[in-house]
Write a structure and sequence with these properties.
Layout: E1 3-8, E2 11-16, H1 25-38, H2 42-45, H3 69-109, H4 113-119, H5 125-135
Antiparallel strand pairs: 1-2
Helix pairs in contact: 4-5
Length: 138
Protein backbone atom coordinates (compact mmCIF):
# COMPACT_ATOMS: atom_id res chain seq x y z
CA UNK A 1 0.00 0.00 0.00
CA UNK A 2 1.62 3.22 -1.11
CA UNK A 3 1.00 6.46 0.67
CA UNK A 4 1.40 10.08 -0.13
CA UNK A 5 1.90 13.10 2.06
CA UNK A 6 -0.43 16.00 1.50
CA UNK A 7 0.71 19.35 2.84
CA UNK A 8 -1.80 21.58 4.65
CA UNK A 9 0.09 24.61 5.87
CA UNK A 10 2.66 23.37 8.39
CA UNK A 11 0.95 20.01 8.84
CA UNK A 12 1.73 16.90 6.84
CA UNK A 13 -1.09 14.41 6.60
CA UNK A 14 -0.58 10.87 5.37
CA UNK A 15 -3.48 9.26 3.50
CA UNK A 16 -3.00 5.94 1.70
CA UNK A 17 -3.81 5.66 -1.97
CA UNK A 18 -7.11 3.85 -2.46
CA UNK A 19 -6.52 0.51 -4.15
CA UNK A 20 -8.42 0.14 -7.42
CA UNK A 21 -10.04 -3.03 -6.06
CA UNK A 22 -11.20 -1.18 -2.95
CA UNK A 23 -9.41 -3.72 -0.76
CA UNK A 24 -8.12 -0.96 1.55
CA UNK A 25 -11.33 1.13 1.55
CA UNK A 26 -11.82 1.01 5.33
CA UNK A 27 -8.23 2.14 6.03
CA UNK A 28 -8.39 4.80 3.29
CA UNK A 29 -11.78 6.08 4.48
CA UNK A 30 -10.75 6.30 8.14
CA UNK A 31 -7.39 7.93 7.43
CA UNK A 32 -8.88 10.47 5.05
CA UNK A 33 -11.52 11.36 7.63
CA UNK A 34 -8.83 11.63 10.33
CA UNK A 35 -6.77 13.89 8.05
CA UNK A 36 -9.77 16.11 7.32
CA UNK A 37 -10.70 16.21 11.00
CA UNK A 38 -7.14 17.17 11.98
CA UNK A 39 -7.60 20.41 10.05
CA UNK A 40 -11.21 20.98 11.11
CA UNK A 41 -12.58 20.09 7.67
CA UNK A 42 -14.52 16.92 8.46
CA UNK A 43 -17.77 18.87 8.30
CA UNK A 44 -17.24 19.28 4.55
CA UNK A 45 -17.15 15.50 4.11
CA UNK A 46 -20.15 14.71 6.30
CA UNK A 47 -22.10 17.70 4.89
CA UNK A 48 -22.69 19.42 8.23
CA UNK A 49 -20.96 22.46 6.72
CA UNK A 50 -22.79 23.80 3.69
CA UNK A 51 -22.24 26.85 1.54
CA UNK A 52 -23.01 30.01 3.54
CA UNK A 53 -26.46 31.48 2.98
CA UNK A 54 -26.47 35.08 1.76
CA UNK A 55 -28.02 37.75 3.97
CA UNK A 56 -31.55 38.90 3.26
CA UNK A 57 -31.72 42.06 1.18
CA UNK A 58 -33.22 45.09 2.88
CA UNK A 59 -36.83 45.94 2.19
CA UNK A 60 -37.46 48.54 -0.47
CA UNK A 61 -38.81 51.92 0.50
CA UNK A 62 -42.20 52.66 -0.99
CA UNK A 63 -42.10 55.48 -3.51
CA UNK A 64 -45.59 56.67 -2.65
CA UNK A 65 -46.30 58.14 -0.20
CA UNK A 66 -42.89 59.67 0.30
CA UNK A 67 -41.07 58.11 3.25
CA UNK A 68 -40.53 60.31 6.29
CA UNK A 69 -37.10 61.14 7.74
CA UNK A 70 -37.28 58.36 10.35
CA UNK A 71 -38.04 55.77 7.66
CA UNK A 72 -35.17 57.05 5.51
CA UNK A 73 -32.76 56.88 8.45
CA UNK A 74 -33.89 53.37 9.37
CA UNK A 75 -33.57 52.27 5.74
CA UNK A 76 -30.05 53.74 5.49
CA UNK A 77 -29.02 51.78 8.61
CA UNK A 78 -30.57 48.62 7.16
CA UNK A 79 -28.71 49.17 3.86
CA UNK A 80 -25.41 49.70 5.69
CA UNK A 81 -25.88 46.53 7.76
CA UNK A 82 -26.79 44.58 4.62
CA UNK A 83 -23.61 45.73 2.85
CA UNK A 84 -21.51 44.71 5.87
CA UNK A 85 -23.26 41.34 6.09
CA UNK A 86 -22.83 40.81 2.34
CA UNK A 87 -19.09 41.54 2.53
CA UNK A 88 -18.79 39.08 5.44
CA UNK A 89 -20.79 36.50 3.48
CA UNK A 90 -18.55 36.85 0.43
CA UNK A 91 -15.48 36.15 2.59
CA UNK A 92 -17.20 33.12 4.13
CA UNK A 93 -18.02 31.78 0.65
CA UNK A 94 -14.39 32.16 -0.45
CA UNK A 95 -13.23 30.27 2.66
CA UNK A 96 -15.87 27.57 2.16
CA UNK A 97 -14.89 27.10 -1.50
CA UNK A 98 -11.21 26.90 -0.55
CA UNK A 99 -11.84 24.16 2.00
CA UNK A 100 -14.11 22.33 -0.47
CA UNK A 101 -11.26 22.41 -2.97
CA UNK A 102 -8.79 21.06 -0.42
CA UNK A 103 -11.08 18.18 0.52
CA UNK A 104 -11.93 17.35 -3.09
CA UNK A 105 -8.22 17.34 -3.94
CA UNK A 106 -7.47 15.14 -0.94
CA UNK A 107 -10.12 12.65 -2.10
CA UNK A 108 -9.18 12.81 -5.79
CA UNK A 109 -5.44 12.76 -5.20
CA UNK A 110 -5.57 9.38 -3.51
CA UNK A 111 -8.18 7.82 -5.79
CA UNK A 112 -7.32 5.62 -8.80
CA UNK A 113 -8.06 7.18 -12.19
CA UNK A 114 -10.75 4.62 -12.95
CA UNK A 115 -12.70 5.79 -9.89
CA UNK A 116 -11.80 9.45 -10.26
CA UNK A 117 -13.51 9.49 -13.67
CA UNK A 118 -16.78 8.78 -11.83
CA UNK A 119 -16.16 11.54 -9.27
CA UNK A 120 -14.71 14.36 -11.31
CA UNK A 121 -17.99 16.19 -11.95
CA UNK A 122 -18.88 16.43 -8.27
CA UNK A 123 -19.02 20.08 -7.29
CA UNK A 124 -19.40 19.41 -3.56
CA UNK A 125 -16.91 17.44 -1.46
CA UNK A 126 -19.68 15.53 0.32
CA UNK A 127 -21.15 14.42 -3.02
CA UNK A 128 -17.72 13.30 -4.19
CA UNK A 129 -17.20 11.38 -0.96
CA UNK A 130 -20.59 9.62 -1.01
CA UNK A 131 -20.22 8.80 -4.72
CA UNK A 132 -16.83 7.25 -4.01
CA UNK A 133 -18.30 5.24 -1.13
CA UNK A 134 -20.95 3.81 -3.46
CA UNK A 135 -18.29 2.77 -5.99
CA UNK A 136 -16.20 0.82 -3.49
CA UNK A 137 -17.51 -2.35 -1.84
CA UNK A 138 -17.11 -2.33 1.97
Amino acid sequence: MSSSETKFGKDYLCVPRLDVSGANWIIYKDRLQFAADARGYLDHIDSTKTIPIPPAAPTLLPSSPSPNAAALTAHAKEEKKYKEDLAKHEKEVVTWKCVEGIIKQLIAGMTPDSLFIKLRHSTIAHTMWTTLGKQVPE
